[in-house]
Amino acid sequence: MAFVAAAIESPAVSLPVAQRPLQAPTLLVFDSGVGGLSVFREVARARPDARFVYAADDAAFPYGALSDEVLVSRVGEVVGRLIGQVAPDLVVIACNTISTLALPMLRAQHPVPFVGTVPAIKPACAASRSRRVSVLATPGTVRRDYTAALVRQFAEGCDVALVPSDRLAGLAEAAIAGDEVDDADIAAEIAPCFVDAGGRRTDTVVLACTHYPLILDRMRRLAPWPVAWVDPAPAIARRVTQLIGPATAPADGNPVRVLTTLRPMEATRVSAIIGRQVAAPEVLGAIPTAALAAAS
Ligand code: DGL
Fold it and tell me: All domains of the chain, ordered by start, with CATH?
C-alpha cells in the first residue's frame, strides 16, 4: 500500500522536470493493441520534433483479462525487449491496465523516464456538477488497489461507479480494423455507466482504457443522455513535454515505426488515426505466449 500512496502523489510520472530540451528525442509509446494510438496522436501533435515508435503486444491482447502476475511478467519481458531494440529517450505506457499495476516495476528495471496513463478520476470528480461520476475501464483496472486509492483520495464527495467492461476494448479493436461492430454491443457495454438515482444523474464518464476514445463518436451517439467524457491524452502529452523540455525543430520526417507481437498493423489505418506517415509495419521476434495460455 505504501507504493500506492507514493504513486498517487504523482500518478503519471516519477522523474523531475527536464532541465534542457532533447534534440529529436525518440519516444516509445506502448499498449496491448491499437488503444494507445489515442494517446499517441496527442503526443505526436505536441512533439513535431520527436521520432516515434508505436508498439503493441497484440499477441497477449486483451491485457484486461490477464491475472496481475501474468501481466507483470509479460509487460516486463515485452517492454524490456522493446527498450533494448529502440533505445528510447522516454516511454509512454499508453495503457491504464499496465500503468495501474506495473509502473513501479518498469521504473525499477529501466533507467529511462516513463509516463503512465491512469484513470482521470481527480479532474472528473472536480468537474462533475451532479456529483455522479463513472469510470469505464477494463476488469483489470477496475479491480486494482491503485484505482480504489484514486477514488478514496480524489472523489471529493462524488459517487463514483467503477464500471468494468469485458468487451469494449475488443469492440474498439474490431471497429478500427474495419470490421462490423453492432451499436447494440457498444450500447450494452456503456449502459452501466449511466446511473440515475436519488435525483442525480451521472454527468461525467472517465475513459479509463485508451481504446475507448477511438470509438468516442459512437459512444456519444449511443449514450442515454449527454455526459462529459474525460480522456487523459492531452494531459499525458503535456507531461511528456514537462519531462523532455519544449519541442525543438521538427524531426527529419522519419515515418513512425509500428511494431506488434503477432499481426502487422495496417499502416493506412494507423496513419489515419495519428496523422503521421507510418513505415512498413514490423513484427517483433517471437515472444512465447505459453504463460498466457496457462493463465486463462
Ligand atoms: N488499452 C488498454 C488500457 O488502457 C487495455 C486494453 C486491454 O488490453 O484490455 O487499459
Answer: 25-117+234-295 (3.40.50.1860), 121-231 (3.40.50.1860)
